[in-house]
């Protein structure tokens, strides 16, 4: 059974940094691209970032480009999101999600980790 | 970037009703369109991909259609457990933009 477990969400001050992690199990991690998606409180879903199966290609939403960095460690079945220069509008529940294959939609999601940016 | 819109933003229907939600892309995306269901307080769930392919385990009352820029999600007979917000998503290329969502509840 596929499991995705995010961690690292905390309350952080504006301008601060944070690294989120996602531990994956139940599938061959290095066969699939992975994504981060966020959802601000009471709002809709916003795609944040994609990393290819081997980490060789990465993509970002314009709202986070230059501030966030996605990475993965296939030896540890783990996905990461380094978040710098955090803003109040980055406050959200951050989900990691597994790509269905071939940069397709997302067939499995974690439960999310809450990031709150506030002074 | 391609923008995604959905209509209506919310709807209320009776149990057993046929419900249709529309999603429109600002440019053609072929059939690279997915639908997700998010029940209150829960994680999003993939319902349909490639515009009309039902994800494994999804009830057959859900169906999708469309190609190019206009797509629809249909629930043939609304059930109480279908109360949720439904999102479309393009995935032909990054950014993998979601629509704003359609909230469905029971009248």
Structural description of this entry:
The complex is a heterodimer of chains A (119) and B (107). Chain A has 119 residues and is mainly beta. Chain A has strands at residues 3-7, 11-12, 18-25, 34-39, 45-51, 58-60, 68-73, 78-83, 92-99, 106-109, 113-117. With 107 residues, chain B is mainly β. Helix content of chain B is 0%, strand content 49%. Chain B contains no helices and 10 strands. In chain B, the strands form 2 sheets. A 6-stranded mixed β-sheet of chain B has the order 2-10-9-4-5-6, with no helix packed on it. Chain B has a 4-stranded antiparallel β-sheet with strand order 1-3-8-7, with no helix packed on it. Chain B is globular, with a radius of gyration of 13 Å. In chain B, 38% of the residues are buried. The mean pLDDT of chain B is 97. The interface between A and B is medium-sized, with 22 and 23 residues.
Features:
heterodimer, A: mainly beta, four-stranded antiparallel β-sheet, 0% helix, B: 107 residues, mainly beta, 10 strands
Annotation, overall tally of beta strands of chain A: 11
Q: Give the oligomeric state.
A: heterodimer
The total strand number of chain B stands at 10
Indicate the percent of residues in helices of chain B: under 10%
Shape of chain B: globular
Cα distance spanning the termini of chain B: 37 Å
Strand share of the residues of chain A? over 45%
Over the alpha carbons, how many angstroms does the gyration radius of chain B reach?
A: 13 Å
Q: What are the segments of chain A in which pLDDT stays under 50 over at least 5 consecutive residues?
A: none
The SS-based structural class of chain A is mainly beta
How many strands, which pairing sense, and closed or not: the largest β-sheet of chain A? 7 strands, mixed
Q: How large is the share of residues in beta strands of chain B? A: over 45%
Question: What is the average per-residue confidence, as pLDDT of chain A, rounded to a whole number?
Answer: 97
Low-confidence stretches of chain B: none
Structural class of chain B: mainly beta
Helical residues, percent of chain A: under 10%
Helical run tally of chain B: 0
Q: Sketch the topology of chain A as an H/E string, one letter per element.
A: EEEEEEEEEEE
Q: Count of helical segments of chain A? A: 0
């Amino acid at each position: 059974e596929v499991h995705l477990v995010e961690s690292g969400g905390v309350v952080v001050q504006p301008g601060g940094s944070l690294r989120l992690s996602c531990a994956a199990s139940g599938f061959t991690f290095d066969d699939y691209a992975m994504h981060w998606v966020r959802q601000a409180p009471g709002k809709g879903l916003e795609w944040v970032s994609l990393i290819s199966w081997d980490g060789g290609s990465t993509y970002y939403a314009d709202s986070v480009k230059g501030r966030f960095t996605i990475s993965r460690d296939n030896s540890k079945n783990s996905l990461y999101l380094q978040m710098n220069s955090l803003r109040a509008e980055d406050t959200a529940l951050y989900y990691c999600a597994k790509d269905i294959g071939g940069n397709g939609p997302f067939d499995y999601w974690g439960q999310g980790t809450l990031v709150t940016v506030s002074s | 970037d391609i923008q995604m819109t959905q209509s209506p933003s919310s709807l209320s229907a009776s149990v057993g009703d046929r419900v249709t939600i529309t999603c429109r892309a600002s440019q053609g995306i072929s059939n690279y369109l997915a639908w997700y269901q998010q029940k209150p307080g829960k994680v999003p769930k993939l319902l349909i991909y490639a515009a009309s392919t039902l994800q494994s385990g999804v009830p057959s009352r859900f169906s999708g259609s469309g190609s190019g820029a206009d797509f629809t999600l249909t629930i043939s007979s609304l059930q109480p457990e279908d109360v949720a917000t439904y999102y479309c998503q393009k995935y032909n290329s990054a950014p993998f933009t979601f629509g704003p969502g359609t909230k469905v509840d029971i009248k």
